[in-house]
Amino acid sequence: MSTKTTYVLSKEEIVSRLESLHFSFEEHHWESFQQSFQEVKVQHPANASKISAKLIAIPAFVVLAGVIIYFSINTLKSQNNTSDDTKVNIETASTGTMPSEELKPEVAKNEAIPEKKTETIAAPVVKAPAPKTITTVPVQPNNVAKTAVVNQVPETPANNTAKVIAAPQTSTVTASGAPVQNQVKPYRVFRKTAAKTVPAELVPNPEEDEVVIPEN
Amino acid sequence: MSEAEIIMQCQRSNKDAQRILFEMHFDRFMLISMRYAKDKNQAKDILNFAYGRMLNQLIDFQKSEKSFEDWSRDQFIEHSIAFLKSKKNEYYVTTTVRVTETKPNNDLFNTLLDEDNYDDVDGPELLKAIQHLPPSFRATYNMCMIDGFDYKKASNYLEVSEDTARFNLEKANYHLHQNIQQFQKGYK
């Protein structure tokens, strides 16, 4: 089957009639082109390297900033935690008991934490007010210069495993009964108040040291 | 400043030179855009798109042996078709709908058109009739009828087979005939 379609106009006629059309340049044509040219320029392959550089640089900068912020926040948090520990230690030392029963298991599990606490309380505990109960020990009237030092340890709960307790009251009493000094010193009870016992092997036996002279 | 110097300055992204080149060839570029577009607004979009792409590819002009007029015309046609194909909904869907609507009432292949009726068709009317063609028909008609491309080259640009390009040209002629008749009836 052959087609009988005839062209509407020949090529020459079409071109000649279309070329009779003229379009005048106006300023807004150039302005609209400039606006759209920026988009075309970005899409061109020649600018692909610039685009990829931007795509890499921007996320890298964001990640770097995030890391810096993260570490700075962590630093601030650690500083805040240190100051909180100090406050707790001050309260614990002044009252002589643990703040609450709920803290006991945590303290018992981690033994490193109380060690840290005892080191931080040294300076502020001196200022803490101690209970003013003074125990007077009777002194011999003839021995005027003799003084007695009594250490009084306040009672702690039986289950309290904390190694730090309230500072005991130390009082120096003269022969007349008047207190000379009232000093408060923090220390570790289980170390400083424990009696030093000498092993039995090291104690000299006077019976063994006797010299036996053989009778000739 | 000669055209060669202007082109050289355009390669160095000189805005003034780009503007001079745009103004020098505006009439020609706008006519190509109007032929491939469906209306004046789309023609402006095609003009901006194609001229921007052409400026970016000015370095290829030095390698080619063509004159700037021929080279820029080919560039403009290529980028105009790329613009039309980027509008996928318009380029493919519209074509199908138009063909389906017109097929039952007309025998497309056995229509004898009377050439004597088109002597009084002027340039604006012909341009309007071309703009009212479906996009794929319009592109084929422009390339094969007006710009002088053979079927092979047109099929490469449009990414269709040569038979499809030939078939689209026949259908474009028929639709152009219909459009002109409608406009003439409307004027009367």
In short:
With about 220 residues, chain A is mainly alpha-helical.
Layout of helices and strands:
The complex is a heterodimer of chains A (216) and B (188).
Chain A: H1 11-19, H2 27-43, H3 48-95, H4 104-109, H5 112-120, H6 122-125, E1 148-152, E2 169-173, E3 179-184, H7 189-192, H8 206-209
Antiparallel strand pairs in A: 1-2, 2-3
Chain B: H1 3-11, H2 15-24, H3 26-36, H4 40-56, H5 58-63, H6 68-86, H7 88-102, H8 123-131, H9 135-146, H10 151-158, H11 162-187
How is this structure best described in words?
The complex is a heterodimer of chains A (216) and B (188). Chain A is mainly α. Helices cover 47% and strands 7% of the residues of chain A. Chain A has a 3-stranded antiparallel sheet with strand order 1-2-3, with no helix packed on it. Chain A is rod-shaped and about 160 Å long. The model of chain A is unreliable at 144-150 (pLDDT under 50). Chain B has 188 residues and is mainly α. Chain B is built from 11 helices and no strands. The model of chain B is unreliable at 96-112 (pLDDT under 50). The interface between A and B is large, with 31 and 42 residues.
The beta-strand count of chain A equals 3
Largest interface: A-B, 31 and 42 residues
Distance between the termini of chain B: 51 Å
Spatial shape of chain B: globular
Element order of chain B: H for helix, E for strand: HHHHHHHHHHH
Describe the sheet with the most strands of chain A.
3 strands, antiparallel
Q: Specify the number of helices of chain B.
A: 11
Q: Average pLDDT value of chain B? A: 82
* Oligomeric state: heterodimer
* Order of the strands making up the biggest sheet of chain A: 1-2-3
Provide the succession of SSEs of chain A.
HHHHHHEEEHH
The pLDDT mean of chain A sits at: 64
The description of the largest β-sheet of chain B is: none
How does the overall form of chain A come out from the CA principal axes? rod-shaped
- Corresponding CATH architecture of the largest domain in chain B: Orthogonal Bundle
Helix run count of chain A: 8
What portion of residues of chain B belong to β-strands? under 5%
The fraction of residues in strands of chain A falls at: 5-15%
Rg over C-alpha atoms of chain A, rounded to the nearest angstrom: 47 Å
- Domain count of chain B, please report it: 2
